[in-house]
Amino acid sequence: MPPAMEFAVESHSARETKAWGRRLGSLLKGGEILGLIGDLGAGKTCFVKGLARGLSLDPDRILSPTFTMIQEHRGRLMLYHIDLYRLETTRLDELGLREYLFSDGVAAVEWFERLQEAAQLEFLSIEIGYTGADSRSIRFSSSSDRYHALIEQLRTHL
Ligand SMILES: Nc1ncnc2c1ncn2[C@@H]1O[C@H](COP(=O)(O)OP(=O)(O)OP(=O)(O)O)[C@@H](O)[C@H]1O
Ligand SMILES: [Mg+2]
C-alpha cells in the first residue's frame, strides 16, 4: 500500500465546510467511497450538503438520516448518503451496504468507522473535528492511490 497522503484545512463556518464539500463533489467521477468521521454535530451532514451541490443536487434534500439510514439521490451521479450512527457496528454484508459502496455512484458514509471492514477498504477519509464554536478542522486523507489524485486536486483548487 502506498503511504498515506493527507491535506488538512480549517473551516470557520458551516458555509465554508459546505464549500469544501462542493469542491470535492465537483471533482468526483463516480465509484468513490467517502468516509466521514467526527463527533456528533461536527459537520458531517453539513459537508454532505455541499457535496450535493457539487453533484448538481439540491442541498436541501440532504437530511440527517435519523430514521432512514440510507438515502439515495440522483444528481450528476447517484449519491448514497449513509449514516451508521444508530448502529454500534455493522458489516458490509448488512443493509446491502456492499451494493452502495461498490457502485458507479458516490457513497458518503457518516460514522464510517462503525463499519467493521473500514480499514480494509480503499476510501477517502474526511475527518471533521471541533476547533472552536464555529470552527472545524477538515482532514482529507487516504492510503489508497486512487484517492491521492483527488487530494492533490483539492489542494491545488484553493
Ligand atoms: N465550521 C463549521 N462547519 C460545519 N458545521 C458548523 C461549523 N460551524 C458551526 N457549524 C454547525 O455545526 C452543526 C453541524 O451539524 P451536522 O448535522 O452537520 O453534524 P454531523 O457531524 O452530521 O452530526 P451527527 O453526528 O449528529 O450526524 C450545524 O448546526 C452547523 O451549522
Ligand atoms: Mg450527520
What brief labels describe this structure?
single chain, 158 residues, alpha/beta, Rossmann fold, 7-stranded mixed β-sheet, 4 helices, 7 strands, globular, binds adenosine-5'-triphosphate
Explain the overall architecture.
This protein has 158 residues and is an alpha/beta fold. It has one domain: P-loop containing nucleotide triphosphate hydrolases (Rossmann fold). Helix content is 27%, strand content 27%. It is globular and about 35 Å long. It starts with a strand and ends with a helix. Adenosine-5'-triphosphate binds next to helix 1 and helix 2. The site of adenosine-5'-triphosphate has 20 residues, from helix 1 and helix 2.
Order of helices and strands: EHEHEEHEEEH
Strand content: 25-35%
Ligands in the structure?
Answer: adenosine-5'-triphosphate, magnesium ion
> Roughly how much helix do the residues carry, as a percent range?
25-40%
* Number of domains as seen in the coordinates: 1
CATH architecture: 3-Layer(aba) Sandwich
Distance between termini? 28 Å
Using only CA atoms, what is the Rg? 14 Å
**Quaternary status of these chains?**
single chain
Helix vs. strand class? alpha/beta
Mean pLDDT: 94
Q: Care to count the β-strands?
A: 7
Q: Trace the largest sheet across and list its strands.
A: 1-7-6-2-5-4-3
Low-pLDDT segments: none
Largest sheet: 7 strands, mixed
CATH homologous superfamily identity: P-loop containing nucleotide triphosphate hydrolases
